[in-house]
Amino acid sequence: MLLKYFYHQALAQASYMVGCQATGEALVIDPARDIQPYVQAAQQAGLRITHVTETHIHADFVSGVRELAAHSGAQILLSAEGGADWAYDYESTALRDGDRFMVGNIRLDVLHTPGHTPEHLIFMLTDTAGADSAMGLFTGDLLFVGDIGRPDLLEEAAGIAHTREPGARQQFRNLQRLKTLPDYLQVWPGHGAGSACGKALGAIPSTTLGYEKLFNRAFQFNDENAFVDWLLQGQPEAPRYFGQMKRVNKTGPALLQDLREPLRLDPTILPEVLKTGALVIDTRAGAAFARGHIPGTLHIPAGENTFSTYAGWYVDFRQPTYLIAAEDDAERIVRELRAVGVDNIPGYFTPDVAEKGGGQVEQITVQQAAALAAPYILDVRSRSEYEDGHIPAAQHIAMGYVPRRLHELPRDRQIIVQCGAGVRSMIVASLLAGQGLRVINLVGGIDAWKQAGLPLEKGIPESV
Fold first, then answer.
1. CA–CA separation, 350 and 438 (whole Å)
2. What CATH number belongs to 2-249?
3. Which residue in 142, 394, 419, 439 is the catalytic one?
4. Alpha-carbon distance 357 to 291, whole Å?
5. What whole-number distance in Å separates Cα of residue 73 and Cα of residue 69?
6. What residue segments make up the domains of the chain, in order of their start?
7. φ and ψ at 235, to 5 degrees?
8. How far apart are CA 23 and CA 461, in angstroms?
9. By the 8 A CB rule, do 271 and 338 touch?
10. With 0-12 CB in 10 A as exposed, 13-18 as middle and 19+ as buried, what is 368?
């Protein structure tokens, strides 16, 4: 048997290929949209990808199930649990609790584990050529290293009311079921540290069920109500694009071969593009954007692992998205955007169009900010980061929620935007500047503030 692990750093997303070396067959679990890593790995191992599946309808990235099946002819196997509202809209072999399927000599047993999502499945793997007992579990977004999948995304991201608490109670029952399984089972989760699908995911790629039973906080509760209260508290902000991803993955995403490749565009048309209301993302570094940019463009630096997630917060999926990007970087940036379903990308402009654009973002040091009398400081970090320590009297709106709360910000005052180190604050500063607000970016963010030994407050965010 061959087991190969794939990890998408920007999305903190794990996928797996299981191959039977005796028969040459292989299964891919939870593939991302860019299927080349799986295709290349199968070729190198002398395997054929004959089956493809996923643990649930993903919210944080575009599924590669259809893409991989179209390329390799693999059989698609998907959950038929969760009711009609959570049935996939494209053809597949239905999987239900208690089902079993084979990939060569490898047996996969199906367990329905609703809670994170109604249709969620996990897969128990047995290499029948070597043992009669299971080796491990592909747990998807049920169980992570050190954490458990959040049950509130349907309500927070997809707008389906009254699903948080029932989902949390289902997660409690899932854990009781896992407690009956052997401790030696390996656990191969669907995400690692940095994912918004939980609140305290570990950074190591795998664990054992026994270790999680001992040290994962989720397993320590015997009282269901106490567990529910704990699980629903402190979850990170759900990115706005999660609801869109649910819809795309349920209906079946477009195949990449059917999408038009973005063109290099004539810079003279950029003013007309902006007049249409289309989003133009300037992907240069923050310092370059601050020195000079086209007013009305949104800054999101492409050099960050968080690029696709941050873009997902701000993209209007109903409108085209254009880029300002170096020609050598454009293909990679488009691939990252398509990983989160941004498919309508007509083209890109090269950076020279922006360097003399006339727009600038004023910058301020922490020492200068501390010397101001009653400055208006907007902290755009997450709620938990803010609560752990913030600049006294700083207001709080998490970066992804700023677009929907623009009306709450003052137009008669300068707004100093601040985050952890300066990346998120420059993104928000570019948004606010494009809306005509008077904005300054705090260089170095809260990290620089702490290093300067300046005072902090802790506690619940103030209402803006």
1. 27
2. 3.60.15.10
3. 419
4. 10
5. 5
6. 2-249, 259-355, 362-451
7. -70, 145
8. 58
9. no
10. middle
Element (H, E) at 274: helix 270-275
Helix (H) or strand (E) holding 144, with range, is strand 143-144
- Which tokens hold the place of 292? 């000079």
CA nearest to 150, candidates 238, 248, 249: 238
Helices (H), 216-357: 224-232, 241-251, 270-275, 286-291, 307-314, 327-338, 352-355
| pLDDT score for 464 | 43
Pick the CATH number of 259-355 from 3.40.250.10, 1.50.10.10, 1.10.3080.10, 3.20.20.140: 3.40.250.10
Which amino acid would we find at residue 132?
D
Q: Mean of the per-residue pLDDT values for the chain?
A: 95
What amino acid is encoded at 419 in this protein? C
Q: What CATH number does the domain located at 362-451 have? A: 3.40.250.10
Mean pLDDT to the nearest integer, 436-461: 94
Angle of helix 164-179 relative to helix 224-232, nearest 10 degrees? 120
Q: Does 144 have pLDDT greater than 90?
A: yes
Token representation of residue 349: 């402009």
Nearest alpha carbon to residue 445 among 407, 389, 372? 389
Residues 6+ apart with CB under 8 A from 420: 381, 385, 445, 446, 447
In the numeric block, which tokens belong to residue 294? 């086209």
Task: Describe the crossing of helices 307-314 and 423-434 by its angle, rounded to 10 degrees.
Answer: 30
Residue 171 φ/ψ, nearest 5 degrees: -60, -40
This prediction's pTM: 0.94
Closest by Cα among 27, 23, 31 to 65: 31
**Is 20 one of the annotated active-site residues of the chain?**
no
- Whether 459 shows a pLDDT value over 60: the answer reads yes
Confidence band for 461, pLDDT divided at 50, 70 and 90: low
Q: What is d(CA 333, CA 133) in angstroms, rounded to the nearest whole number?
A: 44
| Topology alike, domains 2-249 and 362-451 | no
- Residues 338-394 pLDDT 10s: 999 999 999 999 999 998 888 999 999 999 999 999 999 999 999 999 999 999 999
- Classified as helix, coil or strand, 347 is strand
pLDDT tens track for 103-131: 999 999 999 999 999 999 999 999 999 99
* Contact predicate 389/458, CB 8 Å: yes
DSSP label of 123: E
At residue 371, φ and ψ (nearest 5 deg) are -80, -10
Q: Residue 365: is it exposed, middle or buried by C-beta count within 10 angstroms (0-12/13-18/19+)?
A: middle
Burial class of residue 180 in the structure, from the number of CB atoms within 10 Å of its CB (0-12 exposed, 13-18 middle, 19+ buried): exposed
